[in-house]
Design brief:
Blueprint: H1 16-20, H2 43-69, E1 75-82, H3 88-95, E2 104-108, H4 114-117, H5 123-127, E3 135-139, H6 148-151, H7 157-161, H8 163-176, E4 179-187, H9 190-202, H10 212-218, H11 221-235, E5 242-246, H12 250-268, H13 279-287, H14 292-324, H15 334-367
Parallel strand pairs: 1-3, 1-4, 2-3, 4-5
Length: about 400
């Protein structure tokens, strides 16, 4: 990794989780959709900050993936909602593209198929849930069944009214089973949406994104605002909160989602799994399959490989500590600095001990080979040229 810590938490003046999370009395009608809450700088700085956070997120995602591959039960579900042109697709392209794609499960939910309509509305959602170790991303979700269904009157009111509580119970069951749930609503302004739709009409390469139904949906703007307000008021829970993001500035929405996903992963604190095999035993077995030249090359590379891993680990721990301090009034106290220094020394000492052990083992394995390369002769100790006895 090449994380830059010089700027600490960048230009976040406050934790976006505190600023964007739906709380009691949240009023969507008064929400400023062009604001950049908590970000004290501009678009260029946001891009740089996203890059640094992306490297941290990638490391955390890999740890979560490794945990899942080794018997872990945890996963992360990211729900993304928003009207047409709000920028839902950009979340996948610009945020989740910063991690290994094999660790991400993306699913979009459009109009239900004939088969899906034959089942309970949560049936297709359950089938798309992320497996352990994965980050699941829902582009639209089960909330369509209290948004579109409500606005377009596809079912009776007494049917969709019951779904808010049902969704809360459903999400709680996911959390109890090991899935962390975070929900983002990208709220674009009415005028901004009009501009984005017009751009799609003006650009031939964007025609594929435009649907005549977009204008039908736009004509129901107010009804959708009321439906979203009900969603936020009734389904933002302590365990599965809603974060409402101003989406008129796409870069800000992506920045905020990146930060909140990173903070969530830091809270999850995935760790590299401990192997169920003995390192020295497996190294001996592997060495037996290698040529003498390859084993000698591995021995020569040991220090560089291990010290590089130690440096990356220390860099990750430092970046994680800096990110976790977001929103603290005094994030780096003297005691915290000392604790970080001691922890870093312990990590480095453990790594150096492993380095010496594996270097010694490889040397012994190499020495046992009949065709082992000759060791360089050691110079005899002397007093040096011209410094003999008088």
């Amino acid at each position: 990794m090449s994380l830059d810590h010089r700027h600490g938490n960048g230009d976040w003046t406050d934790d976006p989780r505190d600023l964007l999370r739906v709380g009691e009395g949240f009023d969507l009608a008064a929400f400023d959709r062009s604001a950049t809450p908590g970000w004290g700088s501009g678009k260029t700085e946001a891009r740089d900050h996203m890059t640094a956070r992306g490297e941290l997120m990638s490391e955390l995602q890999e740890r979560l993936f490794a945990e899942g591959r080794n018997g872990g039960s945890r996963s992360l579900l990211v729900v993304v909602q928003g009207l047409d042109t709000a920028g839902k697709g950009g979340v996948t392209r610009h945020v989740m593209s910063m991690v290994d794609p094999q660790g991400v499960a993306l699913r979009s939910f459009g109009v239900p198929s004939a088969e899906e309509r034959r089942h309970h509305y949560l049936w297709r959602i359950r089938r798309a849930l992320p497996r352990p170790g994965l980050i699941g991303v829902f582009d639209r979700s089960h909330y369509e069944d209290v948004l579109v269904v409500r606005v377009d009157e596809l079912v009776e009111r007494d049917v969709w009214e019951k779904r808010y509580d049902e969704i809360n119970r459903f999400e709680k069951s996911l959390i109890d089973a090991g899935t962390t749930v975070i929900k983002f609503a990208l709220m674009v302004g009415y005028e901004e949406q009009g501009l984005r739709l017009m751009e799609r009409l003006d650009r031939r390469d964007k025609h594929w994104k435009f649907s005549t139904n977009d204008l039908v949906t736009r004509s129901k703007w107010q009804a959708y605002q009321e439906a979203y307000q009900a969603v936020f008021s009734r389904t933002s829970t302590d365990a599965a909160p809603w974060y409402v993001l101003p989406a008129d500035r796409k870069w800000y929405a992506r920045l905020a989602i990146t930060e909140i996903v990173v903070q969530t992963l830091l809270d999850m604190d995935p760790q590299w799994p401990r192997p169920r095999w003995r390192e020295a035993t497996q190294r001996t077995r592997l060495a037996a399959t290698m040529s003498t030249a390859s084993l000698a090359e591995s021995l020569a590379d040991t220090e560089e490989v291990v010290k590089g891993a130690i440096a990356e680990n220390l860099q990750f721990e430092e970046a994680a500590a800096v990110a976790a301090s977001l929103g603290d009034d005094d994030p780096v106290t003297k005691a915290e600095r000392e604790a970080a220094r001691v922890a870093a020394q312990a990590v480095r000492a453990e790594g150096i001990a492993r380095l010496e052990a594996m270097r010694e083992q490889k040397a012994e394995l190499l020495d046992a080979r009949e065709d082992a390369p000759a060791k360089p002769s050691k110079k005899k100790k002397g007093k040096g040229k011209g410094k003999g006895k008088k």
